[in-house]
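Suppose a classmate hands you a notebook page containing two proteins, each written out with its sequence and a corresponding row of structure tokens. How would you begin to make sense of it? This section walks through that situation. The first entry is reproduced here exactly as it would appear on such a page.
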Amino acid sequence: MKRIALMAVALVVMFAMAVASASAAKIVIKGPAPFTASSGLSKLSTEGLPEIECKTSSASGTLTSATKGEVLVTFHECATEGKKCGNVSAGTIQTKPLDTTVGWINKAKGEAGVDFIGKTGEKTNGSEAEFECEGLAVKVKGSVIGKSTPTNVMATEGKVTLVGKNGKQEIEKFEGGLKDTLITEASLLPGSELPSAQNQTATETFTPIEAKKGTKTVFLPDNVELNTVNNPATPEQGRCQKAKHAKYTDSNCSVIAAEKNGVKKGKYEFEPIS
């Protein structure tokens, strides 16, 4: 009898675990994707001006749609030629709120990136940041494109890499788009608009999502990806999640499933952020 009782208890526990697992599997994450970001050394190089270096940066932002987002970046321990640069405090520079847009860097190779531009004005009139370096006034305008990695991989982290030197950015425009460059105005050279380049690698970490599991509140990792397969017209920010009769066979939504009698045989669907 004791053995039968133990087996009964085990079956109840297994059933409870199966129900809990099924309940968790049904949680579908939707909506915007908030994130934080950080980087090591960042450099702003401008033709005709001394280079500005910041030892680290931090940021917070949100992916708000399939192609758009917003972010605010703070650079720490910034200086040029021994002079501290800042607008929050000496050595600390904070950008104005920035809009982000994803696009193709090289569509044939599946390379995608993100363009950063200030919310407060047009590319030629607005500024991304304004600060002083112990008497030297600096205004950075325009926009800058970084390469996003990885693509087509669901993950809680991603990287954006900006590469440039001597006032020239490696990636200056998206395929089929207008030229996007940074421009710096400095009181050292009044009235001049000088081409600039940003050199930096930032790691984005997506914020866990609060959800209900029965009566309990749980925090689920928010796995997000930049997908280059779902929409040939543009890369898309979103999440690959389990679904019946879905478009994709894999959990990264990168392999399109075959159809039989008009019914999709995949197990995963890509949900663009909205």
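The notebook's second entry, a different protein, reads as follows.
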Amino acid sequence: MKRISAQVIGRVQGVCYRYFCQSKANELGLSGWVKNQPDGSVLLEAQGEKALLEQFLCQLEMGPPLAKVSAIKQTDVPNQDGSQDFHITY
């Protein structure tokens, strides 16, 4: 198991990006959260098997149809016990 934190930069607010993240994470069985940031980026944490996280990051680069991702800044963070779902945080 591995947990990552990622800041997604670009046109990622107002284009259903958080819902896209939640849908893709749930399809892959990842846990974590996603939320908008005041600077226009999206911040998320996701936890799961390394290969599944790599698939998730590839999907995040594409995003939903109206999104335009210019960068993803990713770091590893400590795993969290008991985290079982992926949700949108406000």
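A careful reader of the second entry would note: The CA atoms of residues 33 and 87 lie 5 Å apart.
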